[in-house]
Amino acid sequence: MSITKPSLPKGTRDFSPQEMVKRNYIFDTIKTVFKKYGYAEIQTPSMENLQTLTGKYGDEGDKLIFKILNSGEYIDKNSVEIIQKITQSFQENNVQIGSFDNSTNKVSTEIPVSLDDLNIFNALSGAENAKTNYRLLINQLTPKISEKALRYDLTVPFARYVVMHQSEISFPFKRFQVQPVWRADRPQKGRYREFYQCDADVVGSPSLLNEAEFILIYHEALKNLGLKDFTIKINNRKILSGIAEIIGKPELIVDMTVAIDKLDKIGFDGVTKELLERGFSNADIEKLKPVILLQGANEEKLLSLKSVLATSTIGLKGIEEIETVFNYVSKLTTHNTQLATTIELDITLARGLNYYTGCIFEVKTNEVAMGSIGGGGRYDDLTGMFGLKDLTGVGISFGADRIYDVLEELNLFPASAAQGTKVLISNFDEIAELYALPILQQLRAANISAELYPSAAKLKKQMSYADAKNIPYVILIGGDEMNSGLLTLKDMESGDQQKLDIAAIISKLN
Amino acid sequence: MSITKPSLPKGTRDFSPQEMVKRNYIFDTIKTVFKKYGYAEIQTPSMENLQTLTGKYGDEGDKLIFKILNSGEYIDKNSVEIIQKITQSFQENNVQIGSFDNSTNKVSTEIPVSLDDLNIFNALSGAENAKTNYRLLINQLTPKISEKALRYDLTVPFARYVVMHQSEISFPFKRFQVQPVWRADRPQKGRYREFYQCDADVVGSPSLLNEAEFILIYHEALKNLGLKDFTIKINNRKILSGIAEIIGKPELIVDMTVAIDKLDKIGFDGVTKELLERGFSNADIEKLKPVILLQGANEEKLLSLKSVLATSTIGLKGIEEIETVFNYVSKLTTHNTQLATTIELDITLARGLNYYTGCIFEVKTNEVAMGSIGGGGRYDDLTGMFGLKDLTGVGISFGADRIYDVLEELNLFPASAAQGTKVLISNFDEIAELYALPILQQLRAANISAELYPSAAKLKKQMSYADAKNIPYVILIGGDEMNSGLLTLKDMESGDQQKLDIAAIISKLN
């Protein structure tokens, strides 16, 4: 085997013990809150059938799906058989060759050609059509060589799960899921090709209590992670529909929201320019202005919106939904006056508008400059893509990687030492090692994470090992200690040393 | 988008909430023991560069590696560019076309052909060479369309990790890793294409204390999982080498071990037959017989082996290693007389002999008919495959899926209810719902996992929901309850109902 310096695929990461402790801290904190609110964990396979995933994320998304080569077939000894199978399948499917339309980027299906073994390959010759034919071959080949792909998010697999397991599920189904997803995005700072999603969704319950509880879940999880100042933004797709309706351009709702979503970045003048480009008139923008620039407390905003949207049934419905959510939240937080200040009605919030049908959420920290650290919303037809109609869903997601960066920057991770080895026993020589073994056993029997350095290396090396592993205590055992039964316990942070018997050490470390 | 009934790729599984609770119980129990013995968690990416993996698992293993198509390129609009790149690469690499040798199944490299855009495709025409050329195209194409693969085990990625991070690591490096691996094996009962491995390894320490501690880790983890009767088998590659040396056939060590490894299944007669077929004489087998049929306690076996291997340096070294491990174990278990009975020296144990260089482990439960539920051993040159020499490693693995089946069969999983929602508040109507909200908040503030049924559905439906989710308590709130402040707490298992105020409920549930 050839020896090359190993490397990692672009956009992927190793996690060291120190990083894992921190990542687990984030995941465990969030999971604990999910469970407290009645959410149960599921897991789905890393690979899904390609047809489960394609068409669910738009054209751009489809391109970012990592596809898996059918196993082994293309490098084993059966290649001739494989070719025969492909050929046969070409024939059975009446595959068309030779009419690839560059403008539509599609294979023309006008002229079906019946093929045999040789025709496929013959069709590949000829200077004029070489590239086109090659593209065709690849196009025809791709579904033959890849039928599986890595999951792109947790939502589509969840919908697939619900449809496949509908008879076993007692609805409403409250599930959480923390697993990696893969996207063939161009890697850049903070964007990885493999990253964890951390989702909770409930399917089969239209109650807005769920929305309210998600706000509480965000609040409780982020508070438990030590964040002090963050904003949970809320909006409602129906309010956006109402606004588009009021200005008489319901068909331009997507253009409208794409433009006003940028208010933070490009300001009102920028938004105006974009709205004009996207087919709105100055009169429209005049009507939009008070809505876009909505100021004040949530109650004031709702009051203004009620008057603006007075004639839009759907718009008023959206306002009512937001009010119901606020009501639930206030009843659920009677003892917690601080929470209300972190919720903000933001009608510029859109987040994948085509997906959401009701409330939309987004969470931002105000302590560090960082994009959103969470988001979600309601989608009325979660499982429709797999033929199960009328199941409404609402869910949220935590951006674990960004939360990691935020906690790191604010120095909010708890001392990692607590999670690793608590005490290292030094190893002076064979006699001391033998003496140490029952002590090691006693420490572990008391549930203290303990190690004996596995060889009589220089003490300096053993100490560096304890340092590198963040081990807070070292037990030194030499001749004196063995004679007296009083072991030297060294506190690695303060450098203090104490002579204690093993019972005293155990009680100190516990 | 087309709606098809969704399905899962062959050999992959969804895990329901009930299954996840059980799986997490297994993983958490094992991880807790790993940590107690000073092992720290790492994670590596799901995908590795293809060249990191190929050549590490033998020809058969290589075929079972799931390869990932280079992202999106083959279905996006840049196919022409891609073709140009491939063509260029064909040219630069002086790719040979047209001389595929069917007998050796290899591409003849006798006649290099310089190619251009068209030559590739032209080369693909012609009746005579069509299949060969097609095969060639695929062979040349495969490395172009796939450069990444899903990890096949946790050991090679760990070796890669150690080499890449050697400057940050303080050796000996004790790591554990619990992540899925993927193999394109033919799925069958108990064999999946995606499954979790659960490994602990230490690299950079030749001390046999590590081997002894792995025995303790197996013992403690399996005991904590509730298993009562299991055997930890141990062998040593050096003893096997010694035996082959003594009978004068050191070059046949692999044949010898493959044959005697089957003793359990085919008996001594079967082993004799296989040894004869594999080049051993009747005289050899006569010498082997007492070794193969070694009986008695470990001490007796060691005594017999010492006399049989008296003239083999390597054999005696193997015996010494086993004795050292036994010694360590006994010193580490002075307060635990039960442990020793579960360790068995089994010189028929081989387990991937070419891999291991010292001690070899395998664990079997005696309570259920099941293959091994764990295994491992020492490999003297773990990181040599990536150019970092002289780092010895030793590690073990738990077979989580099999352990799951064992615990299920022996009914050893703890009541899963403890991990889910503890109490459901019923929802009679809007007024009762409003009344319930602060109660829900109080329950959760007391860290009790609680839910309010999100709509005023029929009580029967709400009760079924609690049943299906294994929720042990339901709080019923109707007119009486709201008037008196005494809520009805129903114990779902016994059916008993009690009227209690919220403080009493909280203290009862905590």
UniProtKB/TrEMBL annotation, chains A, B:
Keyword list, A-Z: Aminoacyl-tRNA synthetase, ATP-binding, Cytoplasm, Ligase, Nucleotide-binding, Protein biosynthesis
Quaternary data: Homodimer.
Name of this chain's protein: Histidine--tRNA ligase
Subcellular location: Cytoplasm
GO terms, molecular function: ATP binding; histidine-tRNA ligase activity
Residue sites binding L-histidine per the record: 153-155, 183, 197, 201, 351, 355-356
NCBIfam families: hisS
